[in-house]
Amino acid sequence: SNPTTGTNDYGLDIVKGGAGTDVKMSIDSSGNVGIGTTSPALQSAGTGLHINATTSSELKFTNNTTGSSAADGTALVATSNNFTINNRETGYISLGTSNSVRMHIEAGGNVGIGTTSPNAAFKLDVIGNISASNNLYIGNADDLVTPTTILALNSGRVRGVTLANLINTSGGPY
What is the layout of strands, in order, in the sheet containing 82-87? Predict the structure, then answer.
């Protein structure tokens, strides 16, 4: 609806103030909801939620377990050109497709790909094959002058390590 002219296109505006011109939330005739915008725009052309703000927008989820303060729950936050998924609790975050978890991040930061139980000894635990192009550093990648570990495993045996694959003390190939 248009609160300033009284016309109605079967939408709904929630306004602040007596004049009815400070629209805080809109529901258009397609069912799209806009918070901070009177023209919700969705890339998918489907029905959904569009949040707009001058500095940052946040979609927050809380429940009886998490509490409801600013430091509780889980949030999706858009600030400037950045986007953050933040579980403010001591729980995990999982991403999935086809009703299956594909990536799992534990509260301590360990990541599992292909597993919901990443090995606590590793920051990254991958169940499945890994493909890497260009250089793959295993071990002390911060000190490329003296790598501490270089290892390639295939069927339980070390394979594929050649001088051409190694880095010399000058940082180049042997």
Answer: 56-61, 74-79, 82-87
